[in-house]
Amino acid sequence: MAQTKAQRIKIIKEAHKSFQAKMDRERRLMADCEPRDENWNHWTDASSYANEYYGETMRNTTRFDNDWD
To answer: What does the alpha-carbon distance between residue 60 and residue 54 come to, in Å, rounded to a whole number?
Structure first.
């Protein structure tokens, strides 16, 4: 199935046109969404996170923190 250069260019242009239409639609949909500057990966309570994942190590490390005050 040999294609000429003109045929290949025509196919590429059609694919590009289809892709651009898809990207334009996505841009319009995303413009309707309100921007979110929230970090969904953070813990709202840092002390609970430290206690759950570091427990005794965290307490032993931080128990002398106020000695310099």
So the answer is: 10
DSSP, residue by residue, 23-37: HHHHHHHHHHSPP--
* Cα dihedral sign, 50-54-57-59: positive
What's the rounded Cα separation, in Å, for the pair 60 and 63? 6
pLDDT at residue number 50: 80
**Class of residue 17 by CB neighbours under 10 A (exposed 0-12, middle 13-18, buried 19+):** exposed
Widest CA span in the chain: 82
Q: Is the pTM of this model over 0.90?
A: no
Give the whole-angstrom CA distance, residue 68 versus residue 18. Answer: 66
Answer whether 9's CB lies under 8 Å from 15's CB.
no
Q: Does residue 35 come out as left (phi exceeding 0), alpha (psi in the -120 to 50 range) or beta?
A: beta
